[in-house]
Amino acid sequence: MENRLKGVKVYVGHQDETQRSRLVSILEKLDMEVVGETSSAAEMEKACLAKRPDLIVSGLFPSENPGVDALVSIGEVEPIPGLIIAKKEDMEAVEKALEDHVMAYLIDPVDEHDLKPTIYLVIKRFEQFQELREENENLKEVIATRKKVERAKGVLMALYDLTEEDAYLKMRKVATDRRIKLGEVADLVIKNAQKSA
Predict the structure, then answer these.
(1) For a Cys-Cys bond, which of 91, 101, 149, 180 suits 75, CB 3.0-4.6 Å?
(2) Do you know which PANTHER family this protein is assigned to (predicted)?
(3) CA 42 to CA 62: how far, in whole Å?
């Protein structure tokens, strides 16, 4: 686990200075690089968007209403995995944070034996989350391309009185000859049809 965590850039936000110093000390002992720390949710949000750490370890900032929004806002702009350090009575706010890029939580006070495996888990879960996100984006792109190809086939079938298969083969040949993607050919067909209309 040590090798996996070595050099990971962490930003620490906690309103309690003693707890924050303890967290920083544990993280540095785990060979992680603490790139910043703060007692303010607003400052944490600004710094994390500028520095883009690999991980955020944060308290809930009870005096800032509601402090967890900073973590959610960071996640909306730049997905960064987060670990919440909370008190038992803060579980409602923790559940809100878990809906975003906060991957896990620990109950205060924490020690190295709690923090080390949890950080490892958070990083692993975030990597899986990113993979799923990329797969989802790729799937969306495939579906969008299919829709364009279907539309372009319809245009060619109407213009040249072709069968669906012949229209597809014609597009495939253009893609091969020009060394471009089928989706790009579909875009050209649709664009030219709109110009002619």
Answers:
(1) 101
(2) PTHR43367, TWO-COMPONENT RESPONSE REGULATOR-LIKE APRR6-RELATED
(3) 13
